[in-house]
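**Discrete fold encoding**
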Amino acid sequence: MLILCTSKTLKSVAQQLINIMLKQITFLILALHAKPLCVNRNNELKESWKPFEGMEFEPFHKINKLYNKALETAFDELQKITFNKTNVLYEGIGGEILEANLDSHFAMRDSVRKDVLIKNSVKIYQMLGDDYIKNKRFDELTCSSILTGQLEVAMVVGYGNYLQEEGHFNEENNATQQELVDLTNKVLQECTSIDEFLGFDFKRRLSKFPSYNRILSSRRQMDKIFNYFVLGYDVLNLLSNPKLKLPEKSLEFVAWIFWYYREYDFPYAYEYDWKKVFDDNSFVVTHWGYLLSGQGRYKIFRKDSPLVYNYVRDNFYDAIQYGDMDLVSEFIDILREYGCNQQNDQQIRHGLSWLMTRYRKNSAGQFTWLQGNEEIVYDRLHVVWTVIGALKDHVFKSPRTNDLFYQNIQAAIKMSSDWKTISMN
């Protein structure tokens, strides 16, 4: 076969090769100048990332002997909460228990422990599904109460879709999921707009920011912006099921949350007079990270959330100094979601060393992560849930090609990143 190449064709090919080479050179330059995500030695840390004067941490090799036992204890304490039917059905936290089991298995190495978490999740899902269907709980729902009511529809139907697509359901579970989807769609048909679905005009609300003084001092403000995470995650859960018919602009709402968090002026620890507001702000930041990672199922990248990464780094030792075990655990978990671990990151080693000082014997002589001052079941659940996230190795797999949850996160990131200014239309 004879191929005729004109000078115009040759110029076009040459230009394409030049463009490819320029891109490769650009990527190489960026890689050479990019600061590493994981920082292994104290002298490599920025000043604001270093431990405070007087802070001392047990060398990691000395705590390593108890490490596996500590993780096993957190796992066992999660199971005790999970296996209590009262907790699942009558304490109003069944969805959170389901979420704690599933989140704990995300990015976990294949193991018997991971299999148990999956089996627990299926069991809890079925218990909640049976309760919702047999007790006609959907009769109390309207369009505006799907996300804000007592029924945890988004959690159950969304995670049900995940378990189904991963092949963990039997015929009974599949039938339950189909009925729950049908019941959810029946309520969604009543929705006339995304604002009715959410219960507020999201563009108007998310286009305004509070005063700096209110950011620093108002717990009510913290509750408000934390609730955006809850709503965003619920909407992503529902969007992950292609059978559900959500109102238009549901994904745009998630993108607005990403934009809002990115533009929000989160203060750093030294700016606060009241520790509790620092805690509240910090939990919003970690949950922004969890929104980007699908509660830990996907690896996250600094370019998608520079503030999350920098905030955790700059405030890491403040969290330790303040002594909030849940917050320190979430900071470690977030750093792991960027690909860091105790082998390649000093802050993670210090955080784990500090956490292990809280792993102690109770009055019965048994090791526990519970401090004895947790007033409600959810507080006990949250402690062991976050500790598992901090202690477990994170092994990320590539998302499935039909993973709508991942695709919607990426679409929302791109949509919000493309916005230079916000349009109210």
Observations:
- Residues 1-5, 22-33 have pLDDT under 50 and may be disordered.
- Residues 194 and 247 are 5 Å apart (CA to CA).
- The radius of gyration is 24 Å.
